[in-house]
């Protein structure tokens, strides 16, 4: 994304319009508008360090380690009736430890992104009956 912002800065320097920049770089008009404001206020340097994209994390590394430690103990140790982690149960443990409530979709997306090989193994499996 930094490369696109730098290309946008070059286009702004040459008098390029925001609509042209959005079309050329295949980004949203909102992104270009934000970049243009940054560029207008601080030049290329302001665009160079536009910061991270997306929502900021709501938990610390220590909390994340604590969540992992709690999950390692297993569902029974955390008061659940069976020895199976579900996304709803994982969400509950995260909320207990961090105070932040994520949606089940956020839990699944994060799990897949951080543990690509483990994604399938963390979900309940259903045995098919052999007939």
Properties at a glance:
elongated, disordered C terminus, 131 residues
Helix content: 55-70%
Please state the average pLDDT score. Answer: 79
Order of helices and strands: HHHHHH
Determine Rg (CA atoms, Å).
22 Å
Number of helices: 6
User: Which band does the percent of strand residues land in?
Assistant: under 5%
Cα(first) to Cα(last) distance is 54 Å
- The structure class reads mainly alpha
Number of strands: 0
Low-pLDDT regions? 118-129
Major sheet size, sense and barrel closure:
none
Shape: elongated
Overall description:
The protein is an all-alpha fold and 131 residues long. It is built from 6 helices and no strands. The protein has helices at residues 2-13, 18-25, 29-48, 61-72, 87-98, 104-114. Helix 2 (18-25) crosses helix 3. The termini are far apart. The relative contact order is 0.08. Residues 118-129 have low confidence and may be disordered.
Give the topology.
Blueprint: H1 2-13, H2 18-25, H3 29-48, H4 61-72, H5 87-98, H6 104-114
Helix pairs in contact: 1-3, 2-3, 4-5, 5-6
Quick overview:
The chain is built from 6 helices and no strands.
């Amino acid at each position: 994304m930094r490369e696109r912002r730098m290309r946008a800065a070059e286009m702004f320097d040459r008098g390029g319009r925001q609509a042209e920049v959005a079309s050329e770089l295949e980004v949203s008009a909102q992104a270009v508008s934000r970049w243009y404001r940054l560029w207008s206020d601080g030049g290329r340097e302001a665009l160079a360090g536009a910061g991270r994209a997306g929502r900021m994390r709501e938990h610390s590394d220590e909390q994340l380690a604590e969540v992992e430690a709690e999950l390692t103990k297993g569902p029974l140790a955390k008061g659940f009736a069976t020895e199976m982690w579900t996304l709803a149960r994982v969400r509950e443990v995260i909320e207990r430890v961090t105070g932040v409530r994520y949606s089940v979709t956020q839990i699944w997306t994060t799990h897949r992104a951080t543990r690509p090989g483990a994604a399938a193994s963390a979900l309940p499996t259903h045995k098919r009956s052999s007939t």
